[in-house]
Amino acid sequence: MEHSSRLSRWFDRRGWSDIIIGAPYVWLVVLFLLPFLIVVAISVATKTATAPPFSFGGEHPLVNLQGYQRLLHDTLYLRAFLTSLTNAGIAMVLCLLLGYPMALALTRVSRSWRNILLMLVILPFWTSFLLRVYAWMGLMGKNSWFNALLTDAWNWVVPVDWAVKSIPMMHTNFAVVLVMVYTYLPFMILPLYASLERLDPTLDEAALDLGSRPSRVFLDVTLPQSVPGIIAGGLLVFIPAAGELVIPSLVGNAASPMIGRVISDEFSSARDWPMASSVAVALLLLMVVPMMLYSHYQAKAEGEAGK
Amino acid sequence: MKRRPVFLLTVLCFGFAFFYVPILSMMVYSFNESRLATVWGGFSTKWYVSLFSNRQVIAALMLSLKIALVSATIATILGTMAGIALARFTKFRGRVLFSGLVTAPLIMPEVITGISSLMFFILLADWIGWPGSRGFTTITLAHITFSMVFVTTVVQARMSQADRAIEEAAMDLGSRPWQVLFDVTLPVISPAILSGWLLAFTISLDDVVITSFTTGPGSTTLPLLIWSKVKLGVTPDINALATLTVLIVGIGVAIAGFVMNRSDARRDADARLAYQANK
Amino acid sequence: MSAPDEPFLRIEGVSKSFGTFQAVRDVSLTVAKGEIFSLLGGSGCGKTTLLRMLAGFEEPTSGRIFLDGRDMAGVPPWSRPVHMMFQSYALFPHMSVEKNIAYGLKHEAMTKAQRDDRVREMLDLVQLSQFAARKPHQISGGQRQRVALARALARQPKLLLLDEPLAALDKKLREHTQFELMSIQARTGVTFIVVTHDQEEAMTLSDRIAVMDRGRVMQVGSATEIYEFPNSRFVAGFIGSITSFEARVTGREGGQVVLEVPALGGRVLARDVPGVVEGQAVTLALRPEKLRISKDRPETGNAVEGMVKDLAYFGKDSLYRIVLPSGALVSAHAVNARRGDEATRVADWDDRVWLSFDPAAAIVLTE
């Protein structure tokens, strides 16, 4: 309208969109990007006894790469990285082996059952993560019924000499992997289910019709088409598992810490901010490739869903 | 000639047993008389009584709920703005960085997010004297930051499905862009906004790692309290707390599922109505 | 405020590019008040972009648009007295039929009673009064189309833009709706601009049609003008079907041009076209229904002998494909006016027949 003021014209043309983009943008820059850049900067600072405990002066002005050098020389860090990647890798593979058949089975049950079962897959996700870890602590303990059951089974199978009073499960890497599989399994099932559910069932029928056995149909038709789902699900398990802090602190072996624990200890116990930052940056660099892969396949999976 | 996929159904049953046996076991043991949480000593509800008379637990729950309410609400507002911005404004300066910033917190290891927030708050206090102490404010700020991007994901997905023409239609009928936003865009994506809020609320209520870095003395949220108790071993009143959580969430999800089923049924009925009107 | 000879809508040298892609190139058109005007063309011809520039969703890269004497440059969509009926209808899913129609009125200075009256009037106009309280997903496709129309008309726009108004309807409903659109236009007197890819739709609905191709307007005229007197090979081929031949002008004879058409085996007489000169290369285009098929050589007109290669029986008529001695194929329609079995038809496979046409039916194209 001709009589509208210049302010309201600006607001209609640009202002409202500038606000919609600007508010979350500024928020994320200040509270996410800036803190992250601070970590990167501190990773090349020098540890001091001041508060905050670092400076950019001293023997190595501005850029001090000692933290990164220690990463390569001190076996503590290398072992922690190795433990993290191994545990996360095994958990990812186990999630895939258990999650794939489950996701496939979910696409084969009747529609009314499917909705209920899917809800049951998602339900644990809405309950507390800590409590799910805690549930396994109860089962793995020396006196629990579950441990007793496993011990009896073990003693029945193996020669008498190998018999044990209970199976030591708590505070082992086995426990860490088991609980990771338990807590992250829904992250594997849901993307897999999404990519399997989209497959055209007539493709299966066409392959069967052309003379393939059901096992070949799976390998030739179903599996190749679910690759984006496998990759998305796998990374959705692997990435958080590699940086996991809570699970190893509750059920893990304190003698072989995972990398999340190392970062947290360097920071709180050792008050070595530069070292903690160096380890964090290194972890992030290790994760960059999987993260890029994830967003690539995620975009691809979404692109297919859009068709 | 449809074969029953026996192997698949077996794995499915095993999987669900794997999901639910630990939870059921925990629920059963919450009624255990014995102090030893893993040995059965008879039926009792005393842990529920002790849970509700534990002021620490109630205070932690209240703090958690307060943080979750505030952070989910602000995260929903900011996250919805970001989702609309990414879905509707295809070209603006810094869009690449913006979409990176919206994805990164989703996949950033929590330890790193936690440490960087803590260092930021400490340095900020050093530079400008704020925040004077860490607690409700710092936890809430951190929760908003990493839960808003979940809202963005949900809203952006919904926006990209919505017919853009309805917004143009509203504009064509005389509404200015911000009126279009309130009259058309927000009502149409309101289910996504609601599920985004629920997601942000749950994430905030459940978070341990980032909270553990951004908290300060005297601000113990429920997950932090559970964590510190559980670190020392299994305790029966946590069983009781877990049982209550599972029941509340279970009932909530069941109601949501029921409501959704009903609205599905309504939509089917509507479609029939439209079909008959067509004839 | 406008000069008496000023057209209602004037589009003046309008172009629009998106990056390096030129969607609309130098389009100039005028539309009179109360007209139904169609923009007809295939996908990507620029018709929708032109429509969106009229609605204000896109600004022209160059050129100007005047509506009722007012320059529309810089006027945002919400301030234009132009409303649009979207191809997808774009009904607000969360509002009832009534609320949808009333939506635009909230920006008008009217009392609630006036507003309710207008909505009722609109519901009557599109015969949807009993569906007022329903949501868009509770009514059929045809009803949705009418809601979209009522909503766009409620604010009494100067110009109504219709983007493929019938494309989402099934064939039967489409014919009925076409006539309904025309009657609503006649009753309201609003100027309609229709974008369509469907030539039949354009021809039945419109007073005038602009045929567009690759961003340009190729020809503007009434349905008859465009069909009978196309000005280019593109228009002739886009509207209806033609068979075209290369030809050369060899002279004039009794107000007609004489063409040398090698594919037809020689001389052809055609209605004179101003501006063609002797020796000029032109195209001769023939419409299938303007050709006559006979067993014997007709006495008048252009004639050429050929052999029936194919025939397709459609009921009311048949299409013959006739191969000429030069090897060229010509399509011809014959109306099946007489009832009878196969034996009674004009010609059968492999029959030798004569094809003939009046000089007036021969279309001579220079472009």
UniProtKB/TrEMBL annotation, chain A:
Transmembrane residue ranges: 21-45, 80-104, 116-137, 174-196, 275-297
Record-linked Pfam families: BPD_transp_1
Record bears the keyword Kinase: no
Matching CDD domains: TM_PBP2
Source organism superkingdom: Bacteria
Subcellular localization, as worded in the UniProt entry: Cell membrane
Gene Ontology biological process terms, A to Z: transmembrane transport
Keyword Metal-binding: no
Chief localization: membrane
Any single Gene Ontology cellular-component annotation: plasma membrane
Topological type in the membrane: Multi-pass membrane protein
Domain ABC transmembrane type-1: 81-294
Alphabetically ordered keywords of this record: Cell membrane, Membrane, Transmembrane, Transmembrane helix, Transport
PANTHER family, sorted: INNER MEMBRANE ABC TRANSPORTER PERMEASE PROTEIN YDCU-RELATED-RELATED (PTHR42929), PUTRESCINE TRANSPORT SYSTEM PERMEASE PROTEIN POTH (PTHR42929:SF3)
Family the entry assigns: Belongs to the binding-protein-dependent transport system permease family. CysTW subfamily.
Name of the featured protein: Putrescine ABC transporter permease PotH
Organism name: Fuscovulum blasticum DSM 2131
TrEMBL record, chain B:
Pfam family, one: BPD_transp_1
Membrane-topology annotation of the record: Multi-pass membrane protein
Family to which this protein belongs: Belongs to the binding-protein-dependent transport system permease family. CysTW subfamily.
ABC transmembrane type-1 domain mapped to chain residues: 61-259
Keywords assigned: Cell membrane, Membrane, Transmembrane, Transmembrane helix, Transport
The protein, known as: Putrescine ABC transporter permease PotI
InterPro entries named among the record's database cross-references: Bact_Polyamine_Transport, MetI-like, MetI-like_sf
Compartments where located: Cell membrane
Main location: membrane
TM ranges: 7-31, 57-84, 96-124, 136-159, 180-203, 238-259
An example Gene Ontology CC term for this record: plasma membrane
Entry superkingdom: Bacteria
GO terms classed as biological process: transmembrane transport
Organism: Fuscovulum blasticum DSM 2131
TrEMBL record, chain C:
Catalytic reaction equation(s): ATP + H2O + polyamine-[polyamine-binding protein]Side 1 = ADP + phosphate + polyamineSide 2 + [polyamine-binding protein]Side 1
One GO biological process term: putrescine transport
Stored Pfam families: ABC_tran, TOBE_2
Domain ABC transporter: 9-239
UniProt keyword Repeat, yes or no: no
SUPFAM superfamilies registered for this protein in UniProt: MOP-like (SSF50331), P-loop containing nucleoside triphosphate hydrolases (SSF52540)
The protein's Enzyme Commission number: 7.6.2.11
PROSITE patterns for the chain: ABC_TRANSPORTER_1 (PS00211), ABC_TRANSPORTER_2 (PS50893)
Subunit structure: The complex is composed of two ATP-binding proteins (PotA), two transmembrane proteins (PotB and PotC) and a solute-binding protein (PotD).
Family: Belongs to the ABC transporter superfamily. Spermidine/putrescine importer (TC 3.A.1.11.1) family.
UniProt-recorded name of the protein: Spermidine/putrescine import ATP-binding protein PotA
Origin organism lineage: Bacteria, Pseudomonadati, Pseudomonadota, Alphaproteobacteria, Rhodobacterales
